[in-house]
Amino acid sequence: MKKSERAEIILKELKELYPSPPIPLNHTNAFTLLVAVVLSAQSTDKKVNELTKELFKVADTPEKMKELGVSRIYEYIKQLGLSNQKSKNIYLLSKLIIEEFHGQVPNSFEELESLPGVGHKTASVVMSQVFNIPSFPVDTHIHRLSQRWGITNGDNVRQTEKDLKNIFPISEWNTLHLQIIFYGREHCTARGCDGTKCLMCRTLYPKRKKKFICKKP
Ligand code: SF4
């Protein structure tokens, strides 16, 4: 089966399952979404939402976050992995947004990626979910599913992002990355899989009769 045919099957199935997927990280504005995405690295969205509920009550703008300072930010987020570094990054990015961007979250990849703790994936989430600019944030989960579904051979998330952008229409990118994330959480987790249990793989691999373990990450 060609990659384009696989892409069509995947799109159709995901649209049926998740017609309008919500943004999983709670936020009230561009700044709080940016902070939530930075906090979500190596942590679950559920835990981030639990902790930001209190943090955003006292600091939902760069000014208030800067005012809070590193040590008090840390107190709110200390249950997360990498909390020391994340506290410093959140403080510094708030300061930079005030000093360099007039208190507004910037809307370009270059400017977003210049902020501490903000990599390409985080910038892509903000670009797509806040500014509605077509982006395809690829994390390890989307990378894993793309490998299992045979729509990329990429060894890393950047290559997978390129492949997905090539095979899916640009109008689908912003929703599709959320749909893949939800499918991964619900059906196609990082734990082992026999490659035959879901309708998705039975349709994508109609000739597959035996169990198949995808060795790629
Ligand atoms: S069969 Fe396995 S690889 Fe295929 S979609 Fe289901 S969980 Fe994912």
TrEMBL record:
Known catalysed reaction(s)?
2'-deoxyribonucleotide-(2'-deoxyribose 5'-phosphate)-2'-deoxyribonucleotide-DNA = a 3'-end 2'-deoxyribonucleotide-(2,3-dehydro-2,3-deoxyribose 5'-phosphate)-DNA + a 5'-end 5'-phospho-2'-deoxyribonucleoside-DNA + H(+)
CDD domains named in the record = ENDO3c (cd00056)
Cofactor dependence: [4Fe-4S] cluster
Molecular-function annotations in GO: 4 iron, 4 sulfur cluster binding; class I DNA-(apurinic or apyrimidinic site) endonuclease activity; DNA binding; DNA N-glycosylase activity; metal ion binding
Q: Which residues form the HhH-GPD domain?
A: 39-186
Tell me the PROSITE patterns matching this sequence. ENDONUCLEASE_III_2 (PS01155)
Q: What does this protein do?
A: DNA repair enzyme that has both DNA N-glycosylase activity and AP-lyase activity. The DNA N-glycosylase activity releases various damaged pyrimidines from DNA by cleaving the N-glycosidic bond, leaving an AP (apurinic/apyrimidinic) site. The AP-lyase activity cleaves the phosphodiester bond 3' to the AP site by a beta-elimination, leaving a 3'-terminal unsaturated sugar and a product with a terminal 5'-phosphate.
- What name is this protein filed under? Endonuclease III
Specify the species.
Answer: Prochlorococcus marinus subsp. pastoris (strain CCMP1986 / NIES-2087 / MED4)
Name the lineage. Answer: Bacteria, Bacillati, Cyanobacteriota, Cyanophyceae, Synechococcales
Encoding gene per record: nth
